[in-house]
Amino acid sequence: MRNLVISLTELGWNSSCQEHFAAFKDLGFEAARVIQEHKEAYLLFAEGRELSGEVSGRFRHQAQSKGDFPAVGDWVAVEGRPGETKATIHAVLPRRSAFTRTAAGGRTEAQVVAANVDAAFLVSGLDGDFNVRRIERYLTLAWDSGSSPVVVLNKSDLCADVEARVDEVERIAIGVPVLPISAVEGRGLDSLRDHVGPGKTGVFLGSSGVGKSTLINALLGTDRMKVRAVRQDDSHGRHTTTHRELIVLPGGGVVIDTPGMRELQLWSDEAGLKQAFDDIETLAEQCRFRDCAHRSEPGCAIRRAIKLGTLDARRYESYLKLNRELRYLDARQDQKERLLEKARWKKLSAGRRKRNRHARPWR
Ligand code: GDP
Ligand code: ZN
């Protein structure tokens, strides 16, 4: 299926992009959005045309980590000759938000799986899959990315007490929209559309089987993704990406659906955790001792809240668990940064030595 002419505005181009792009425009570059990535070969949408792109040699040389490379959803500055479909990517514009994950191979290097996302739809099924603790984890992920979370409770047709579920989620997702939806019956879809309108970019997060593809198809109004059929036809038993990873919706709005997004792992920072567990952080400030470990200290506000039932012990457990995971990741990240820094200094001083060797008399 070929896409017709799509404007940058339909892809989400806005005044902030324009501002960031100004300097590149003066240099004669063109703006484009990354719609697919495969082994550092990029499919791009520029104004009214599709391009295939690769980063320039200079870009590659200057990139310090995987996270610096273009990702689906990124706005890039490209150089492409008129009439040709190949383009060279010279720069990635600053990201409004980014979902990252640990790069493959077990190294702790953040790799961007989706950039410039406005709305993160955290999808759960109101069937056996429903799990508040999991929603908490996804909330942390969403806050960390810089996008705005929207909790989607799909399969409401299978649930006898939707209201109670919504209440339950609203208690842990303070200030976050919670939308009960039935993708198969088309109920609540308009509330979803409100968050991914023209110029806005959304992603769908959630376990396999909660209905992400069905929801995306419902928004598209076609069976474009052919969820089941594709999976069955594929002899490798994997999801063939015949569909684009960045999908433009008929009424405007963009959905990013990459394989990386589908298997997103926890890669959080402190700020996101604090925001998702704001109530616990606030409680902890009320403990008598500043360094309270919330075990058996007198005057511990957290223990008291658990005893009184105002804080769910399981919620506190998942907070502790996330904290532990974060500390582990932090430690590995620190180690990695120290090594990088060392390498950088080595390179710098080698360069300096070289320059001194070739020093010109007028310098
Ligand atoms: P994904 O893995 O998250 O993309 O999930 P799919 O979209 O493939 O959906 C998994 C299954 O759930 C399919 O059999 C869908 O028909 C079904 N499903 C999706 N949405 C709903 C819904 O609102 N109600 C019900 N009853 N089933 C749904
Ligand atoms: Zn305490």
How much of the sequence lies in strands comes to 15-25%
Structural class: alpha/beta
Q: Any idea what the radius of gyration is?
A: 23 Å
Q: How many beta-strand runs? A: 13
SSE series: HEEEHEEEEEHEHEHEHHEEHHHHH
Say which molecules are bound, naming each kind only once: guanosine-5'-diphosphate, zinc ion
Would you state the CATH class of the domain at 98-257? Alpha Beta
CATH-assigned homologous superfamily of the domain at 98-257: P-loop containing nucleotide triphosphate hydrolases
Helix content: 25-40%
What profile does the largest beta sheet have? 6 strands, mixed
Strand order in the sheet with the most strands: 10-9-8-11-13-12
Kindly identify the CATH topology of the domain at 98-257. Answer: Rossmann fold
User: How many separate helices?
Assistant: 12
Mean pLDDT: 81
First-residue to last-residue Cα separation: 60 Å
Question: What this model shows, in words?
Answer:
The chain has helices at 15-26, 57-62, 132-145, 162-172, 189-193, 212-220, 227-233, 259-262, 270-276, 278-284, 301-308, 313-357, and strands spanning 30-38, 41-46, 49-55, 75-80, 86-92, 98-102, 110-115, 119-125, 148-154, 178-180, 201-205, 246-248, 254-256. With 363 residues, the protein is an alpha/beta fold. Among the domains are: 15-92, Beta Barrel (OB fold (Dihydrolipoamide Acetyltransferase, E2P)); 98-257, P-loop containing nucleotide triphosphate hydrolases (Rossmann fold, 3-Layer(aba) Sandwich). Strands 10-9-8-11-13-12 form a 6-stranded mixed beta sheet, sandwiched between helices. The chain has a 5-stranded mixed barrel with strand order 1-2-3-5-4. Strand 2 (41-46) and strand 3 form a beta hairpin. Helix 3 crosses helix 9 and helix 9 (270-276) crosses helix 10. The structure holds guanosine-5'-diphosphate and zinc ion. Zinc ion binds at residues 287, 292, 294, 297, 300-302.
